[in-house]
Every structure is written in structure tokens, then in C-alpha cells.
Amino acid sequence: MQIYKVGGAVRDRLLGREAIENDWVVVGATAEEMLELGYRPVGADFPVFLHPQSGEEYALARTERKSGRGYGGFTFYASPDVTLEQDLIRRDLTVNAMAEDDHGNLIDPYGGQKDLAARVLRHVSPAFAEDPLRVLRVARFAARYAPLGFTVAEETLVLMRQIAESGELDALTPERSWKEVSRALMEPRPDVFIQVLRDCGALAAWLPEVDRLFGVPQPEKHHPEVDSGIHVLAVLRQCAEHQQPLTVRWASLLHDLGKGLTPEEEWPQHIAHEKRGLKLIKAVNERCKVPRDCQELALLVGEYHTHAHRALELRPTTLLELLQSFDVYRRPQRFEEFVAASEMDARGRTGLERRDYPQAAYLLGAVAVARAVTVQPLLEKGLKGAELGEALKGERLKALKAYKEGCGKA
């Protein structure tokens, strides 16, 4: 039995980065031997075990063969006669197909170290094209390592394009896709994730609603970058720079989908794109089985982000309606995330990335004012039911009017 550290831990050590977790491959052993040594089995499809002390994953060396569609369409062969090189060649990228023995010696049969030095993400073998999930995975790695200068090899993009054109992406379960997408959006350059998917045709296959934005112009006065798709990439980049949570990043990706429905004769104007985009945002959310908090924020940002941009001009009644749409009295955090997404939208414009966004402080101040109105004095007057609700709404409106006047004088 020989044990090797493999994959990401080896790659990140060579890059001088801290490894998040260690993965191990065991050569020359059987599942029975692993159980005798106290390892706990966890793999349903192939033999993977947890170390009895560290809890880290140890997988028996294996080969695999395509047997069906999608991420799970493989049969695996794990046996003591499978070599380390046979195990490594089934991996996605050369930089992930390296191993270390227990003395720290590097085993690199497929040129991973050379590609690390060249800052290239390159597939290990033609078998790469058998797993559609690798399209999303490679784009995610590109988003992670773009700050280090990594790019995807042209021949790997060709294989990714073949997968996208084959329709194999449709075989991925929404749950598995979302796991990759949610991780990619939280990488240092989520915009690169979307760009790589577009470069290989996968964005049109997976998220056609976003792909459709590229080439759609906006008024240059407000959007110096002009192109709606380029704008979305810039907004995502701002999200990463400002370390926004996943909810804000997902909402930022979808906020302008309505612009893809604007008739060409109306370009570059996109009147009512906020309302038009809601059905598309809802469709994407449902198709991708997105978590509820991400779904809700995406719909709210899509509908109301231009309200945020015009916050200083809104009448108190409109401002109150906006706050009530977000249920700020019970869920203030959701409104804070809406404000953050709106600010990222405003900053995601060429040359305007550092411009102040006073609307953020104004909106958050309005929330504080509205939430400060208490119901107790109204209860003491004997009000209840609908009458109480209307009176409370009136008091909040009065407070917002005073707030707006105070801000105007300031």
C-alpha cells in the first residue's frame, strides 16, 4: 500500500498558497484492507474512505469509463493493480494531476508543474470531454486564479465548446451545477467565470438570458461601457472587490436581464426593463433551483434597482412603498443587501468605479427612521386591526417626510 497526496493541495503548495483541504490516493490496496485499518467508507459510487483520526478523504486509485450522460455517467474500476499514473490521467487539469509521496517528492507525469509556471489551465487528456461538469469547473478555476495571471488553454476551450454544443450540459443536475456556480461567484474574479463560459459557448447553453445581454447597447451618457453584457461583468467585479455575499452577487448577475428583451428599434433606451426582466429572473431561479434567499433578492433587485439610483428624488410615499416591499421591519438585512447590489450596479461602469453613491446612506437612513416609529402610542389610543395598520403607516410616512426635508436642508 502506498499513499499519495494529490490534487489541489499539491497545486496550491507549488503556488505558495495555503491548501484548504488535503486529498489522498491509495495505491495497491483493497477496500477490505482499508476497513481493517479503521478507515470509514463514504463513497457510494467508488471506494472513498475517511481517515480514522484526521477525517480526511482517502480514495482507492481508480480508472473510469464513460457509460452514460452527465456528471454521474461513469463506471469505475478500483483495484490494487491500478497505478498512480492511471488514476491521475482521469483528472481534469494538468495542474490538478500531480501527486506527492510521503517524502514530499513530486510525481508529475502530465506536465502540471510546467503549466503552473506558464499560468495555463490545460486538460490532461481527451477524456476531459466526457464530463460536462468540467466546463463549469474549469471556468471556476479561471475565476480563482485570474489574479495570478492564469488563462485557459486554447485547446481546452475547444473541448469545452464541444461539450457545450453537444447538449451534455443539459444532463447536469441543477443541484450539482449550482454548487459549482455558487462557488465560482464567490471567487476573486466571478466576471472571469462568466467570460470563460461565454468564450466556449457554454453561457448561451446554460444561461442564455445572460448571454443575450452581450451586444445590447445602453446610453453612453449613463453607461460609458455601452454594452449591457460588459456592464454585468463589471458589476460582478465590483462585487468581488467589495467582498459582497453570494446573494448580492447572484442578484447582480441577473439584475438587467430585461434589457435582453428590449426591441432593437428602442435601443439604446430600455424603458421598463425592470418589470420585463422579472419573468426571466424567475425562470432562471427556478431552472437552476437557486436557494430562496438568492431568488428573493434577485427578483427585488431586478425590479427596484433603478429606484435606488433615484432614491434622493423619490417622494416620501414612494420611499415608504419601497421599504414595505422589502418588509424592512422584519427583514432589514435583505434591504441592506439590495442597497449593496444597487451600489455595485452604479459602480460597475467604466470610469465610475470610485464615484460616491450617496443613495446608499440615504436609503439606510430612511430604514432606520421608519423602523424607529413605534406602535405602542397607537395601541394606547385603542387602535387595532386595519385602523392600527393605517395609523402606523401614516406615522412612518410623517417620519420619512421629516427625514427627507432634513436631508434637503443638510
Notes on the protein architecture:
With 410 residues, the protein is of the alpha+beta class. It has 19 helices and eleven strands. The strands form three sheets. Strands 3-4-5-2-1-8-9 form a seven-stranded mixed sheet. The longest helix has 25 residues, at 385-409. 40% of the residues are buried. The model has no long low-confidence stretch (mean pLDDT 94).
Q: Any low-confidence stretches, pLDDT <50, length ≥5?
A: none
Q: Count up the helices.
A: 19
The whole-angstrom Rg is 26 Å
Quick one: overall form? elongated
Strand content: 5-15%
Distance between the termini: 75 Å
Helix content: 40-55%
Q: What's the rounded overall pLDDT mean?
A: 94
Structural class: alpha+beta
For the sheet with most strands, the description reads:
7 strands, mixed
Secondary structure: number of strands: 11
The topology string of helices and strands comes to EHEHEEEEEHEEHEHEHHHHHHHHHHHHHH
Which strands sit side by side, in order, in the main sheet?
3-4-5-2-1-8-9
What is this structure's SSE topology?
Blueprint: E1 2-6, H1 8-14, E2 23-27, H2 31-36, E3 40-41, E4 48-50, E5 57-60, E6 62-66, E7 74-78, H3 84-88, E8 99-100, E9 106-107, H4 112-118, E10 120-121, H5 133-145, E11 151-152, H6 154-166, H7 174-185, H8 190-199, H9 202-206, H10 208-211, H11 228-241, H12 246-254, H13 273-287, H14 292-309, H15 316-325, H16 332-347, H17 358-372, H18 376-380, H19 385-409
Helix pairs in contact: 5-7, 5-8, 8-11, 11-12, 11-16, 12-14, 12-16, 13-14, 14-16, 15-19, 16-17, 17-19
